[in-house]
Write a structure and sequence with these properties.
Blueprint (H helix, E strand, L loop, with lengths): L7 E8 L6 H15 L2 E8 L6 H12 L4 E4 L5 H8 L4 E4 L11 H11 L3 E5 L6 E3 L3 H18 L11 E4 H10 L5 H13 L4 E5 L1 E3 L10 H17 L1
Parallel strand pairs: 1-2, 1-4, 2-3, 5-8, 6-9
Antiparallel strand pairs: 4-7, 5-7
Length: about 240
Amino acid sequence: MAPRGPGRVSVLLPTYNERDNLPLVVWLLVRTFGDSGIDFEIIIIDDGSPDGTQEVAQQLEKIYGSDKILFVFPSGTAYIHGMKYATGNFIVIMDADLSHHPKFIPEFIRKQKEGNFDIVSGTRYKGNGGVYGWDLKRKLISRGANFLTQVLLRPGASDLTGSFRLYRKEVLQKLMEKCVSKGYVFQMEMVVRARQLGFTIGEVPISFVDRVYGESKLGGNEIVSFLKGLLTLFATT
């Protein structure tokens, strides 16, 4: 059994064209961990952004120190690459576009300690969780995708397509070895595989806020690939 509660938390922060958002999300993370007294590191994994995100990441590393902020170039999947550098026994995965507020991370950690969970997932669909800044179409797509997933896969978690989660490091490593999906389906497969392998999942209601700067990556191609991935998971799990 892994030790109860996190000793050090590693945040994996994949970025693409997040020059405007990155300084603020890093500042919020540093402040949140500082206020909570939690030891941390932030690993920024940039996928070749042409907008200057990499230069911003390098500046942040200088400002906060490389023991707290580490900027790396990915080779292959960002999460797998970022994990090679992670020294924490727990890993937070989140978006860098300010849709995930770091203030929920201490709640994730409290929840993990409370139930000794392997994974704590942020949920928009339980308790006082919610989505802000989306139009009706986007909300319907998200709700519909989640409903379809619940019906077909019965995963035992309320938000399958969200990407704001806390994992035990060794659990995340095992799941990465099993998962084959990419994009939006990847987050869903992580939960389904976790249930298959007998890992425990806790949930914390979160507020999801649509990105302030930059463009959403959700388009028709992503919806088609989501449906294909869902059917593949249904057929193989």
